[in-house]
Every structure is written in structure tokens, then in C-alpha cells.
Write a structure and sequence with these properties.
The structure is a single chain. The strands form 2 sheets. The protein has a 6-stranded mixed sheet with strand order 6-7-8-3-9-10, sandwiched between helices. A 4-stranded antiparallel sheet has the order 2-1-4-5, covered by helices on one side. It has about 600 residues and is α/β, with parallel strands linked by helices. The longest helix has about 55 residues. The radius of gyration is 36 Å and the shape is elongated. The chain is built from 20 helices and 10 strands. The chain folds into 3 domains: about 325 residues, ABC transporter transmembrane region fold; about 180 residues, P-loop containing nucleotide triphosphate hydrolases (Rossmann fold, 3-Layer(aba) Sandwich); about 70 residues, no CATH class.
Length: about 600
């Protein structure tokens, strides 16, 4: 017997996003599903009153009760429906927020782990295709509640019917008809369960197919320019035709399953309905209950058999959905294992933070090769360090270790004679202002982007923007710091060019006023002269802070106090520009002359 352990665990997590939703939804279902039973009950009373030739006053009272009751149920259902809609919006908002919060709270090494990224992508894609996962779970649970509520209401009427029948003497015909009804119900349940399992399996395969179609369309839409030059359209269309054929075969299979099982299910349902009419008619003629009750009891028996069948169909769907819930829970189960530290970072006005790499090596998860090997380097306060080397030499990995986005695989990094692992992780991160090559600006007001907070110091933010050369563009902005970047959420937002976005990112780094400023090739898309000008100007602004500049262009960092040359994950040379050029056998000399030849 399947215990739905995964569903129960996922429900507890999902329910925590808004504990008010499911109670409100249950209350709404209790009210809205009361309508057909109330209508059947009152219709039976009205028919009985007509058959027994009750007075007009009595008939009018029954009609008035029916209309007023239905109006009350409708009004209460509408009120509850509004509350449920609001609760659902809050639930979905909180679920999305929790999902994103989980992503942002992951250790950086896990955030960059391909397996973790693939897991997150699967969850998102599953939610797009057939809403598999928590959304499908919510639908199934709501349907189950609906069917159970209907069965509960039917049970009340069933008890009433049995109690009336029990007052009569034993009748073999009634027993046979009751057995026939039960048999039809069991048959319907079996058919619906089989249908549910087969269709669920087919829909699961359709989900995989739709994912491939979605990825094909997404990849093709991003290659518009390439497709024109390299005639990729024919290749894409061929793959699309193959997917279309598979799509057609699969949906034909789903339709066949539905058609093949719909007929026996329909016949079973009608046989149950026929037996219900005969049973109710029999006991009506025997005087067990009035003629109007034929409407009531036949109606609820039809609802009962249908809901029992759909109940088991939904349970099958719920079971199939569990594999997608396992993916969802697996993501939330990822544990952070980076040591957070507890030692407070001393707040020093002199920014006296000396950092030393001691025999540091690092290997990415899943890789057998070291990205960095035996790194030994001192960073002194106020120093200008350039980190240079070819692409893939380990420059960015070095910065990630310095900022504790990763911890070393071997060796230690010390700050003021303490292993950086011992420092409070958040406080340690606050020591660094970094502008990465793939920096990110938010579609929010300019002030929020510069300050990276909900509020900002207007005077300071404007000063930083002017210092990085953004002043001329800033003067053109209608709302100054209140001006929204981009048009994602504000139609009056402004779009900024790549160079302007870089300046905003530089202003953000300065605004933070951290002891360490790091530029990790944020200007790699610019030409060498423009990059050198930005680096040189930025160096004047940083003042007494420790600055680290990363570039594969050696000419951009000639002004630095010290240059560390990386090659294949190792530091092969350290010195000033002039010192390094004197070693004609060194890597720096080789790179310098190779790059200089392009501008000779």
C-alpha cells in the first residue's frame, strides 16, 4: 500500500508557505459542494408536496427555502472564493520567494555546481510542463477534498435511506439490487484506477517530450543571427518534425487509453444508475419513503459512484506526481557545509587587513584536476595588485577563494594571522567590493543599484556616480536616483548601454566603501586603451584601499605595485612591470611581447 510519504512531506513544506490557504479552501468546498445536495433534497420535498397535494402556502414556503438557501450558499461561496483567491496568491508568492531564497542561501560552490543547476532547472521546467510538482499536488489534493466532501454528503443521505428501508421487512430484490450497485461501483473504481495509471504514465512521457520541444524552441529563438548565416533552420525543422511525429504518436496513445476505458466506465456508471432507479423505485412502491425521494436518492447515488471512481483516479495521479515532488524536496534538502565562522572582523579605521595565501590549492567539485595549485601570496594594506594571465589560468578562481566564495581544497588563507574560516562569514564578505565580469544590475531605481539596499545616501551615491564618469548620463535622467533602470517593472525606466552599466557597477563598488576593491575583468568587452583608462582612473579614486585588478591584458595594469602572473593554475612570477620584463625567459615577457605585437 503506497503511503504517499513524499506527498505528505511536500505538503507540510508547501502548507507552511501560507497556513491559511487549505483551511479556507476546505471551508469553500464544504459550502460550494453543498449546492447540488441541497437542491436534490429540496426538489424531493417539493415533488412530494405536489404529489401529496399540499397547500399553496406550504409549497411557497418550500420554494422560498430553496431559493434563499441557494442564495445563501452562493453568497458564502463567493465570499470564501475571494478569500481563497487572495490566500492562493499569497501562497504562490511565498513559495516562489522560498524557492529563490533557497537558491540565494546556498553555498556558492553548490550554486555553481552543474548538478545543482540542473536540479533547479528540472523543477522549473516541470512546473512549466503540466504543472508537475507542488502545483499539481495542490490540484490533486483539492480534488481529493472535493470528492471526499461529496462522499461525506452522500453518506448522510445513504444513512437516511438505509434507516427508512430497515423499517420494512426483508426483500430479496432490494438486496440483489444493492449488490449490483456495489458491484458497479467497484468496477468503476477499477476502471478509473487503471485509466489513471496508464494516462499518468503517458502524460509523464509527454512532459519529457514537451521539455525537449520547449528547449528546441528556446535554443532556436536565441540563434536568429547564426541561423541566417549558417542556414540552421533546416536542421531545426528536421528535429522539430521528428518531435512532432513523436508528439502525435504519444497523444494518440493518450486518446486511445481514454477512449478504450471510457466506454466500460460509461456502461458501468449507467448500470449503477439503472440499479439505483430500480432500488429506489422498489422501496418507494413498498412505502419506505415518499415519491419525491426518488429524485434525491437516485441523484446522490449517481454522485457517489462518480466521486468514488474519480477519487481513485486522482490518487493514481498523486502517486505519479511524487517523482516530481522528490526532485523538488531534493533541492530544498541541499545542506550548506561551508563553515560560517564566529570570530568578529575588527573594524579598523586604518583598513589594516593583511591577507596571505599559504600553499593554497583548489579543485572544483567533480573535477580531478586542480584549478589552482600551491598558491603563496601576500596582500598588504593599500597595495595595488594586478593578477594577469591567459584565459583559464586561474585568475577568477583566485579571487573566489580570496572572497571566500570557496574554501581551499588544500592549504590556508590567513587574515591578520587568523585563518579566514574562523571569521564570521558575513562580516568577512563585507570587507570586499567586487566588480565581476558578469556583474548584474537590478531592474530597480538607480539609487537601489548603487547602494545595494532599500535606502541610500543621496549625496554619497551621486558623488560615486560622478567620480566614475557617469555624471553626464546622470544629468539626463528625469528622476535622478529614483530613475528605474530598464523597463521590466517601470515603463518610464531607462535603458543603459554596456559602458554605462559598467560605470554603475563601479560606483556600487565604491559606495560600499570596503577595505578591498577588486575588478575582475568587468571591462573585458572594451578595447585595451579604453580598459587601461578606466583602470587608471579607478585607481585614483580608490585612495588608500587595497585594490586588485584582474586582466588578461598586461598593458592595463602597468601602474600596479605588484603583478602576479598566473599560468595553468599556478603563480609563476611576482614583481613589478619593469622587474618582470627583465626576465626574458619568463611568462610575463612572453605574454607582453605576444600582445604588443598586435599593436606594433
Amino acid at each position: 500500500m503506497h503511503n504517499y510519504k513524499t506527498t505528505r512531506r511536500a505538503f507540510r513544506l508547501y502548507h507552511s508557505y501560507n497556513p491559511h490557504y487549505f483551511p479556507l479552501r476546505l471551508f469553500q468546498i464544504l459550502f460550494t459542494n453543498l449546492t447540488p445536495f441541497f437542491t436534490l433534497w429540496m426538489s424531493a420535498e417539493i415533488v412530494t408536496a405536489l404529489y401529496e397535494k399540499k397547500t399553496k402556502e406550504e409549497l411557497f414556503l418550500l420554494v422560498a427555502i430553496t431559493l434563499c438557501g441557494k442564495l445563501f450558499i452562493h453568497v458564502m461561496g463567493a465570499i470564501l472564493g475571494r478569500c481563497v483567491d487572495n490566500a492562493l496568491k499569497q501562497l504562490e508568492h511565498n513559495e516562489a520567494a522560498a524557492f529563490n531564497k533557497k537558491t540565494l542561501s546556498l553555498d556558492y560552490d553548490k550554486l555553481e555546481n552543474p548538478e545543482v543547476r540542473h536540479l533547479r532547472r528540472k523543477i522549473v521546467e516541470n512546473s512549466w510542463i503540466n504543472c508537475y510538482g507542488v502545483t499539481n499536488m495542490r490540484w490533486c489534493l483539492e480534488n481529493l477534498i472535493t470528492y471526499l466532501v461529496n462522499i461525506l454528503y452522500c453518506s448522510v443521505l445513504f444513512v437516511e435511506m438505509v434507516s427508512l428501508i430497515a423499517k420494512l421487512s426483508f426483500d430479496i430484490r432490494g438486496i440483489l439490487l444493492l449488490v449490483a450497485i456495489v458491484t458497479c461501483v467497484v468496477l468503476t473504481v477499477v476502471i478509473q484506477s487503471r485509466c489513471g495509471k496508464k494516462q499518468a504514465a503517458a502524460w509523464e512521457r509527454s512532459g519529457d517530450l514537451l521539455l525537449r520541444e520547449n528547449r528546441l524552441g528556446g535554443g532556436y529563438s536565441q540563434s536568429g543571427m547564426d541561423s541566417r548565416f549558417y542556414k540552421q533552420q533546416a536542421i531545426v525543422e528536421q528535429v522539430d518534425r521528428e518531435l512532432s511525429k513523436e508528439h502525435k504518436r504519444l497523444y494518440s496513445e493518450i486518446n486511445y487509453i481514454d477512449f478504450a476505458l471510457r466506454i466500460p466506465s460509461y456502461l458501468s456508471s449507467k448500470a449503477s444508475e439503472l440499479c439505483s432507479y430500480l432500488l429506489i423505485g422498489l422501496y418507494c412502491t413498498l412505502g419506505a419513503f415518499p415519491v419525491g425521494s426518488v429524485i434525491k436518492y437516485v441523484g446522490y447515488l449517481g454522485i457517489l459512484t462518480n466521486n468514488i471512481g474519480m477519487l481513485f483516479y486522482t490518487l493514481s495521479s498523486l502517486k505519479t506526481n511524487e517523482q516530481f515532488l522528490e526532485t523538488y524536496l531534493e533541492y530544498f534538502d541541499i545542506q550548506n557545509d561551508m563553515y560560517q565562522g564566529s570570530l568578529s572582523v575588527e573594524k579598523r579605521s586604518d583598513k589594516q587587513f593583511d591577507i596571505e595565501f599559504k600553499n593554497v590549492s583548489f579543485r572544483y567539485s567533480g573535477s580531478e584536476d586542480f584549478a589552482l595549485k600551491d598558491i603563496n601570496l601576500n596582500l598588504k594594506v593599500g597595495e595595488r595588485l594586478a593578477v594577469v594571465g591567459q584565459n583559464g589560468s586561474g585568475k577568477t578562481t583566485f579571487i573566489k577563494l580570496l572572497c571566500r566564495l570557496y574554501d581551499p581544497t588544500e592549504g590556508e588563507i590567513h587574515m591578520n594571522d587568523f585563518n579566514v574560516r574562523k571569521y564570521d562569514y558575513r562580516q568577512y564578505l563585507d570587507l570586499f567590493s567586487v566588480v565581476f565580469q558578469d556583474y548584474n544590475l537590478l531592474a530597480m531605481p538607480l539609487g537601489n543599484n548603487v547602494a545595494s539596499s532599500e535606502t541610500w545616501d543621496a549625496v554619497k551615491a551621486e558623488q560615486m556616480l560622478y567620480e566614475v564618469g557617469f555624471g553626464e548620463r546622470y544629468e539626463e535622467m528625469p528622476k535622478k536616483l529614483e530613475t528605474s533602470l530598464y523597463k521590466n517593472f517601470d515603463e518610464e525606466g531607462v535603458n543603459v548601454s554596456g559602458g554605462e552599466a559598467q560605470k554603475i557597477a563601479l560606483a556600487r563598488a565604491l559606495y560600499k566603501d570596503a577595505p578591498f576593491i577588486i575588478l575582475d575583468e568587468p571591462t573585458a568587452a572594451l578595447d585595451p586603451i579604453a580598459e587601461a583608462e578606466i583602470y587608471s582612473k579607478f585607481d585614483e579614486i580608490v585612495g588608500d584601499k587595497t585594490a586588485i585588478y584582474i586582466s588578461h591584458r598586461l598593458s592595463s595594469c602597468r601602474f600596479c605595485d605588484k603583478i602576479a602572473v598566473f599560468d595553468q593554475g599556478r603563480i609563476v612570477q611576482v614583481g613589478t612591470h619593469e622587474e618582470l620584463l627583465t626576465n626574458t625567459e619568463g611568462k610575463y615577457y612572453e605574454l607582453w611581447n605576444a600582445q604588443a605585437s598586435y599593436y606594433a
